[in-house]
Write a structure and sequence with these properties.
Elements: H1 3-7, H2 9-32, E1 37-39, E2 50-54, E3 57-67, E4 74-78, E5 88-97, E6 102-110, E7 125-128, E8 140-148, E9 153-155, H3 158-166
Parallel strand pairs: 3-5
Antiparallel strand pairs: 1-2, 2-3, 4-8, 5-6, 6-9, 7-8
Length: 173
């Protein structure tokens, strides 16, 4: 991550989230003739960033983002997400074009079919704090697991993501 990107990480995360929501809304409407309700929690302590509802399916979604060429091999996931119906993680890999002045996203997905709970997080390592305490020891974060990149499935395009999220069938108007 460039110095500028790391200094503005909240900005980049919010911009990626807006691109994601736009793609979900557009694909649901134009591709399937469906509307998606988008809700944001007031407090971020249950492991999800958005609640999406479409076609009778409610998804609690944790969003993660990184540049498309980032070396990151895992994402930290709050175990509380496993308590939510249809909890899942969408890892947004962003490409920033200096030519088009646009961010485009590709996706990786960790979750189960619509209506099923998040796969077990038991086999994943407990995450540690990024900074050490007074003695330099990085303590464990008991509510956070490191989910490896290999556990995430690549998603070909926004249409395939909608199929994963909501189990939609057919094409809309």
């Amino acid at each position: 991550m460039s110095n500028e990107t790391s200094l503005e990480s909240s900005f980049y995360e919010q911009m990626a989230e807006h691109v994601f929501v736009s793609e979900v809304l557009q694909e649901a409407w134009y591709g399937f003739g469906q509307k998606v309700a988008v809700l944001r929690p007031e407090v971020d302590n249950e492991g999800y960033d958005l609640v999406l509802e479409c076609h009778g399916v409610v998804r609690h979604v944790q969003l993660k983002t990184s540049k498309i060429d980032a070396k990151r091999a895992y994402q930290n996931v709050n175990i509380a997400l496993a308590n939510k119906p249809s909890g899942c993680i969408v890892w947004m890999l962003r490409h920033e074009s200096q030519t088009t002045h646009r961010m485009t996203l590709t996706y990786r997905f960790f979750g189960d079919a619509a209506g099923k709970r998040l796969p077990s997080l038991q086999g994943f390592a407990t995450a540690k704090h990024t900074r050490g305490n007074g003695e330099g020891v990085k303590k464990e974060r008991p509510a956070i697991r490191r989910v490896l990149k290999g556990a995430f499935s690549p998603v070909e395009n926004p249409r395939a993501l909608l199929l994963r999220l909501f189990g939609l069938q057919g094409a809309g108007g």
